[in-house]
Amino acid sequence: MAFESLTEKLQNVFKNLRSKGRLTEADVKTALKEVKMALLEADVSFKVVKQFIKSVQEQAVGQDVMNGLNPGQMVIKIVNDELVKLMGSETTEIALRLASEVTIIMMAGLQGAGKTTTTAKIAGKLKAKGRKPLLAACDVYRPAAIKQLQVNGEKQGVEVFAMGDKNRPVDIAKAALVHAKTNGFNVLILDTAGRLHIDEEMMQELQDIKAAVPVDQTLLVVDAMTGQDAVNVAEMFSNKVGIDGVVLTKLDGDTRGGAALSIRAVSGKPILYVGMGEKLSDLEQFYPDRMASRILG
Ligand code: GDP
Questions:
Q1: Which UniProt keywords apply (predicted)?
Q2: What is the dihedral of CA 29, 35, 36, 39, to 10 degrees?
């Protein structure tokens, strides 16, 4: 499970703090230095760590903490609150139009991040909410992508709109929207093509799709196990294509947790969901407060 090593390190820091009656400024400084190291080792972005520690320090050296009845406990609370803030405080949901209209969601991300799987996972969640989603296979470059979406769509009981790999993604998106409108679907999820690395062509294609159909939300899928890379990808997509939120996949295999902690602060975009496994039911809503509790153990 995610964060094991960060949790273990933070727990050691806090154990030391709790064992002291009153805290001196030096005690707090030492503890925060250890927290800083633990966050850096968890692959949290350096800039984010610096700001985080500064903010905790400002609150922790305040008189209230020094003179508090249980200063160790108060420092832990400050760290907890700052972690929640770092991850965005509020839970962000996919914003849906009225059921009488079609909400268009565009999925983006690098190849292998889990985009196609996540598309089907989200369709399942929306279906459970009473929506009627249609998935559009706009990844015409990866040979197996269309078939994979069809297989997953079938598992979820959700229709997949495909036109093979000879049409342009923009045209598929347009045709899918017509199909959605004429057949009573109220959510259209576009599975777009990824690349191994960020390139201009991919960014352009996403912009072209956005220009061709009225996309309501662009969700970026990133792989938590790639740590800082995931954060960089989020920042780039945010600047170049414009994204509304992030789905962080493979958190089940991520022992460090750096991406979960840095993405919001670096890209300015909230994490909506986290992928916790390969099964189509392994997608969880992202709750910053619960995640902070999980990290602190
Ligand atoms: P795409 O190229 O971005 O469309 O990626 P895929 O959807 O094909 O996923 C790539 C691999 O990651 C597949 O083997 C998925 O089963 C796996 N995967 C996707 N999401 C998760 C997740 O949350 N946890 C785990 N453990 N594996 C995942």
A1: Cytoplasm, GTP-binding, Hydrolase, Nucleotide-binding, Ribonucleoprotein, RNA-binding, Signal recognition particle
A2: -170
Q: What tens digit of pLDDT does each residue of 151-202 get?
A: 999 999 999 999 999 999 999 999 999 999 999 999 999 999 998 888 899 9
* Amino acid in position 182: T
Q: Is the pLDDT of residue 66 over 70?
A: no
**Ligand 1 test: best mutation among 1, 110, 117, most atoms within 8 Å of CB?**
117
The complex's ipTM?
0.99
3-class secondary-structure state, position 245: strand
| 49 Cα–ligand 1 center, Å | 29
Ligand 1 nearest-atom number relative to CA 119? 7
Helix (H, G, I), strand (E, B) or coil at 136: strand
Regarding pTM above 0.90, the answer is yes
How far does residue 55's CA lie from ligand 1's centre (Å)? 36
